[in-house]
Specification:
Low-confidence stretches of chain C: 1-11
CATH topology of chain C: Heat Shock Protein 90
Strand order of the largest sheet of chain C: 1-2-3-5-4
CATH architecture of chain C: 2-Layer Sandwich
CATH architecture of chain A: 2-Layer Sandwich
Oligomer: heterotetramer
Strand content of chain A: 25-35%
Number of helices of chain A: 4
Order of helices and strands of chain A: EEHEEHEHEH
Shape of chain A: globular
Order of helices and strands of chain C: EHHEEHHEE
CATH class of chain C: Alpha Beta
Distance between the termini of chain C: 46 Å
Largest sheet of chain A: 6 strands, mixed
Structural class of chain C: alpha+beta
Largest sheet of chain C: 5 strands, antiparallel
Helix content of chain A: 25-40%
Number of strands of chain A: 6
Bound molecules: adenosine-5'-diphosphate
Chain lengths: ~120, ~120, ~150, ~150
Amino acid sequence: MPDLQVATRRAAEVVVVEPTGFINAHTVAEFEGVLNALVEAGDVRIVISGAHLSYVASAGFGAIMGLIEEARAGGGDIRVAALTGTVAHIFRVLGFDRLCRTFETEEEAILSFGGH
Amino acid sequence: MPDLQVATRRAAEVVVVEPTGFINAHTVAEFEGVLNALVEAGDVRIVISGAHLSYVASAGFGAIMGLIEEARAGGGDIRVAALTGTVAHIFRVLGFDRLCRTFETEEEAILSFGGH
Amino acid sequence: MEGIEPLGTERAPLEIDVPATCECLSLVHEATRRAALAEGFDPSAADEIAVAVGEAMTNVVEHAYRGEPGHAVRLRFLPGPDALRIELEHRGAAPASLPTGVDLGRLARERRRGGLGVHLMRRLMDHVVHEEPAAGVGCWVLERNRAGFRPPES
Amino acid sequence: MEGIEPLGTERAPLEIDVPATCECLSLVHEATRRAALAEGFDPSAADEIAVAVGEAMTNVVEHAYRGEPGHAVRLRFLPGPDALRIELEHRGAAPASLPTGVDLGRLARERRRGGLGVHLMRRLMDHVVHEEPAAGVGCWVLERNRAGFRPPES
Ligand SMILES: Nc1ncnc2c1ncn2[C@@H]1O[C@H](COP(=O)(O)OP(=O)(O)O)[C@@H](O)[C@H]1O
Ligand SMILES: Nc1ncnc2c1ncn2[C@@H]1O[C@H](COP(=O)(O)OP(=O)(O)O)[C@@H](O)[C@H]1O
């Protein structure tokens, strides 16, 4: 597993961002760059899949925090799916479950955008 | 234990060099600097005490190898004492026991210079 | 001629200098995670300790040294009977104060991308302080209690 | 929501990028030593593996990249059933050939201070090669057999 690779996929009007590896202050630029580009392009319905992340440091959560209101202002949202282990734990202890909707699976997260 | 600290002590006409920490390609300059200064000053009866070394990479052995004939040409020698664990093992597998005299204790190494 | 014992005996406390750069974060994470595993912490605790130490390292790189190149951090692993203590000593700026909590909603509305580091260290470890042991020297001290250890009431 | 397993299961093979500088040697040593301990090698074997990996790292810094700053090494820990394999991949120069032995007496008479690195790697590990998996890519491959493992006659 390399430090970080970020793949994106489209599922109807939702973009799934799938980072593989880990996100820390060194690798976050890669992750943030992808999110930035999506939000700037108006691709604001975003699901981040955590299935292939080994850990995410505060810098990674900061990237989501810094963009989520922009995505919401554009009629979308940033939602996360398939968090496991340390990533899920850190999400919770940072209180991100109050900022950001999470889903057990990527499919559920994609479907959650169906209503609006 | 810091990366490397090199202490020197005098015992009659012998100088005991006592490195504490580990010697690798990064820290070797410190170790080599002390040996160089001694040999250049004609302080060529040198005992290196290994008692406080956790490991020595090839760079450290290279420093001894590069100076031992100079010390001998000046009527002295570089001898080592109190090698333990990994340092003793690497000394042996590099074949340094054929280049350089070793002693169980610092005292024996110092006394070995007594004859000449 | 005995073998070297693992951390906790012959070589403890372990102390190494690390370049203060974000490029070294993953290696520090990995060395910390393995130190914690070797000390008997379970895999998820070891991961959490490694993330916390990464936050302290990031703080030193970005705030104490303001991203300037050429500085070092001295990393110490100090296993004790009740807790694993890890210190990161530096010669950069000290934080004026440590945040006691964060208001995520407000940070998000202000489009802030940071401000979570110290908070996360605190949530993952049992004890987090920044000390100034001497003039010009700063030191993050992080402790995680061993499983089953009940700290004294305070 | 399960915990992350240690090396060998969920995250194996472990792969991290490290700045190709001598300042990082001690941290690579320590991470390697702990990886070997976690894989069940005894403390002296773990130390030897760590020294060998340090030699490979030094070779990459000093010879492959000729001491130039700004390069990286990709470090991989690949535990197998019979051996621990460690790879150090770089984008620098490859050695034209590997020395098969050294004549210490001659090196000493010539006042040489180096020339021992590859030799030491070979003496500490069971298998050492330098591969070129692609154009411009070099890779040190070091393997140490697990205790009790008898390699096939070759
Ligand atoms: N070592 C330090 N030196 C100076 N200022 C600091 C230091 N640590 C933290 N600060 C200040 O406190 C703020 C919050 O720090 P922190 O929680 O680590 O946030 P972040 O994760 O964005 O770095 C920083 O933005 C900085 O202004
Ligand atoms: N990766 C490499 N690229 C180019 N030349 C190399 C490389 N590795 C080794 N060499 C050559 O082989 C010699 C011996 O290497 P080595 O045994 O590692 O000695 P040292 O410990 O002095 O580095 C070096 O001095 C160098 O000339």
